[in-house]
Design a protein that fits this description.
Layout: H1 7-11, H2 33-40, H3 46-54, E1 56-59, E2 63-67, E3 73-76, H4 78-88, H5 95-98, E4 100-101, E5 109-110, E6 116-124, H6 126-131, H7 139-161, E7 164-170, E8 175-184, E9 186-192, H8 195-198, H9 202-205, E10 217-223, E11 226-227, E12 246-251, H10 262-291, H11 295-322, H12 325-343, H13 346-352, H14 355-377, H15 385-399, H16 416-423, H17 431-449, H18 454-460, H19 465-475, H20 481-497, H21 501-543, E13 556-561, E14 565-567, E15 570-572, E16 575-577, H22 578-587, H23 598-603, E17 612-617, E18 629-631, E19 637-644, E20 662-666, H24 667-676, H25 681-689
Antiparallel strand pairs: 1-2, 1-6, 2-3, 3-10, 4-9, 5-9, 6-8, 7-8, 9-10, 10-11, 12-13, 12-18, 14-15, 16-17, 17-20, 18-19, 19-20
Helix pairs in contact: 7-21, 10-11, 10-14, 10-17, 14-21, 15-20, 15-21, 17-19
Length: 702
């Protein structure tokens, strides 16, 4: 719709999704080139954007990263790579605590279940998906038709291209794009520092600034047993970056809720976020109790404990944003302005006016279904690796017996390779840990759904969650990869005949889980997609199309400047230095979590203590951006994002750069530490030259 809507359009320039300041997590094929040029005097070219896109990677465990040498070297955060490091560790060799350095390719250790994705191509498939909604279909039928189209598009793409293909929904259904990824599944650990310096300051310093963390990890991607030979990778900067310089972040932000309606935000505030905090707190306390029982328990639970601590602090920040009356009033005002703009135009009112009320009704149903859906369909009541594998085996066996378009989307043909990688992971299984996690989640399910819930009664049968979990985990054989392969290859017959207690458990709850899933798909997801599409069209008509969508754990471009901020009357400088880490440790008596590792103490005299260490900047980031490369105008890496400050946590709902900042490790500190602390000269040289020595031979996985 070309005609603008008078003064209402002016009011709507502040509406969610219309970028102000350095706001925005932009699609690479819709980068705001003119906005960037107007503010920073630099217009990223298509070639510049392509180079950054092809040098960026998505870690399948929820983080971002980059390719930083022609010989397959990949770069991310310690906390993103932590799962692999934990899987490779043992009671005798705990690489989380000691760190790890492979001085040759032969010493690099293969991660059991890590997959890296590079976004190769983007194709607009909006017309195909929206066109699946035929005249006369009700909302549930339209939703089913569109899900079938998504599954078919992914399968056709994977078959033709050999790539990992995912249709991504933007603007709640206003845009659909087919993302085509190159998959790397042979990923090997090269270097991680000790946890004491990667997470220096621990939970007290998490989401704070100033910071002094070497939160980095290096991996190498392999193809056919050799280090992958890459035409495109990101080079490390020799010069670094200074205060006020523009900086660009390429990463995969997980999820934002900036375009949600007020009805959806109210559900988040009143139901979902308090519930999530309760669940996280109980699970965290159960794991802390388990970890306190022995040194080995502490080691095997450390990755999960770290994850819960991080999630709790993040969700508390999100909840504070939801409880911020001024922020929510602003969002309500913007929604009202958009609705007024729609209602003032008869054609738009007829086409889009009912969308908000339809979403409000669907949200009411979402609130009713939320807890059963979480506990039963998404396995919130059945935590642990072996329970997860049991569900995969039961569902894959059933779904593979159907035509591809009729399968649940996550079990479509295009998704199976990644599911198989999860299922056949060689990561160690800790039955004691799985028992605690399953018992805790069963107890939470009974508490939240009530003892009279049909699934609770089916699963517990009057017994305690602890007894059910202990019996199931002790007697399952799913810790044996050979047994998992047997069930997978045997298909539906093998799974139906299995008497493994976890397989029996998942078979038992599957009918009810599928019934809840259907209600969710028909009464919630389909309505949110259908009416969300209408609201997106209304936004495009009123505001134009130059806006960014909410985050979806897909590749985005953010931009801003290196910049400090004011806090409580104090100027917070944009950068710390290596010397500050030793001073910070001394102020806390060199006690955990402020005790630097011995490698740092022993090397202090050799270091240039003025080397910039952690920096803050204004690019728009969120969870999932961890590991994102920060690059300068030349496309060279000047840092790696590892956190945001506490003021950035409300960015889930609205960007504000008065104090909110992204936090990165400066590449100059990385090179200084590699050379002078870890004596990793070959790795430092590879980063600065872009090539590794003797990296083309076949190297058996270690």
């Amino acid at each position: 719709m070309k005609r603008r809507l008078g003064t209402l359009a002016v009011a709507l320039c502040l509406a969610s999704g219309v970028a102000m300041a350095d706001e925005g997590m932009w699609l690479f094929d819709r980068a705001p080139v003119q906005r960037i040029k107007a503010k920073y005097g630099f217009a990223p070219s298509p070639a510049w954007l392509d180079h950054l896109r092809l040098g960026s990677v998505r870690f399948n465990n929820g983080g971002s990263g980059s390719l930083v040498s022609a010989d397959g070297l990949a770069f991310t955060n310690h906390h993103v790579g932590r799962e692999c490091v934990q899987d490779l560790s043992s009671k005798e060799k705990d690489y989380i605590q000691s760190g790890f350095l492979a001085r040759t390719n032969a010493e690099e250790k293969k991660c059991p279940a890590l997959e890296l994705n590079v976004l190769r191509e983007i194709e607009d498939v909006t017309s195909q998906v929206q066109g699946a909604r035929k005249p006369g279909m009700n909302v549930a039928e339209a939703g089913q038709a569109q899900r079938e189209m998504l599954t078919q598009l992914e399968a056709d793409c994977a078959r033709k291209s050999g790539l990992r293909c995912e249709v991504v929904t933007f603007y709640a259904g206003g845009l659909y794009q087919l993302y085509k990824y190159k998959r790397y599944t042979d990923v090997r650990l090269v270097f991680v520092p000790e946890e004491r310096v990667a997470f220096f300051g621990g939970d007290p310093d998490n989401f704070e600034f100033p910071r002094y963390d070497l939160d980095i990890a290096f991996f190498r991607v392999y193809e056919n047993g050799r280090p992958a030979q890459l035409k495109t990778y990101l080079k490390f900067s020799h010069r670094g970056i200074k205060d006020g310089d523009p900086v660009f972040v390429s990463g995969n932000p997980g999820r934002t809720e900036r375009l949600l309606t007020m009805a959806q935000l109210n559900l988040l505030r009143e139901v979902q976020t308090p519930f999530t905090l309760d669940v996280l707190t109980e699970r965290y306390q159960a794991l802390k109790t388990f970890a306190a029982e022995s040194t080995e328990n502490a080691r095997i639970a450390s990755d999960n404990v770290f994850g819960y601590e991080n999630a709790l602090k993040a969700y508390r920040g999100r909840y504070a944003g939801l409880m911020d009356k001024q922020l929510m009033d602003e969002k309500a005002s913007r929604e009202a302005a958009l609705r007024q703009a729609v209602d003032s135009n008869p054609k738009m009112k007829y086409e889009y006016g009912a969308a908000w009320n339809a979403i409000a009704k669907a949200v009411e149903r979402q609130g009713q279904l939320f807890m059963p859906y979480y506990f039963i369909e998404t396995l919130g009541g059945f935590a642990g690796a072996e329970s997860h594998w049991a569900r995969l085996l039961v569902r894959v066996a059933s779904e593979k017996s159907k035509p591809n378009q009729q399968r649940l989307r996550e079990y479509g043909q295009a998704r199976l390779p990644s599911l198989e990688q999860q299922l056949f992971s060689t990561a160690p299984v800790y039955k004691a840990l799985d028992t605690v996690e399953l018992a805790t989640s069963l107890r939470l399910m009974r508490e939240k759904l009530g003892p009279d819930n049909a699934v609770v009664k089916q699963v517990l049968g009057g017994r305690s969650p602890e007894a059910v979990a202990k019996e199931a985990i002790e007697n399952t054989n799913l810790n044996d990869i050979v047994y998992r392969e047997h069930l997978y290859e045997g298909g539906l017959t093998a799974v139906e005949q299995s008497q493994d207690p976890l397989i029996v458990l998942m078979r038992t709850i599957d009918p009810e889980a599928r019934a809840i899933r259907k209600q969710w798909d028909d009464e919630v997801d389909s309505v949110l997609r259908d009416s969300g599409t209408l609201i997106a069209k209304a936004r495009f008509a009123v505001q134009g199309t130059e806006m960014y969508p909410d985050a979806t754990f897909t590749l985005r471009l953010s931009y801003g400047a290196m910049k400090g901020y004011q806090q409580n009357g104090e100027t917070i400088a944009y950068s710390t230095n290596l010397g500050g880490a030793f001073e910070h440790a001394a102020r806390h008596g060199n006690q955990d979590p402020y005790a630097l590792p011995e490698s740092w103490i022993d090397s202090k005299a050799a270091l240039d203590l003025k080397t910039p260490y952690n920096d803050v900047s204004t690019p728009d980031i969120i969870g999932g951006n961890s590991g994102s490369p920060a690059v300068d105008k030349n496309g060279k890496v000047v840092g790696i994002v590892f956190d945001g400050n506490i003021q950035s946590l409300s960015w889930d709902f609205q960007y504000d750069d008065r104090q909110g900042r992204a936090i990165q490790v400066d590449t100059r500190a990385i090179i200084e530490a590699l050379r002078k602390i870890y004596r990793a000269d070959a790795l430092a040289k590879e980063l600065m030259s872009g090539r590794a020595k003797a990296a083309t031979k076949v190297v058996p996985a270690n």
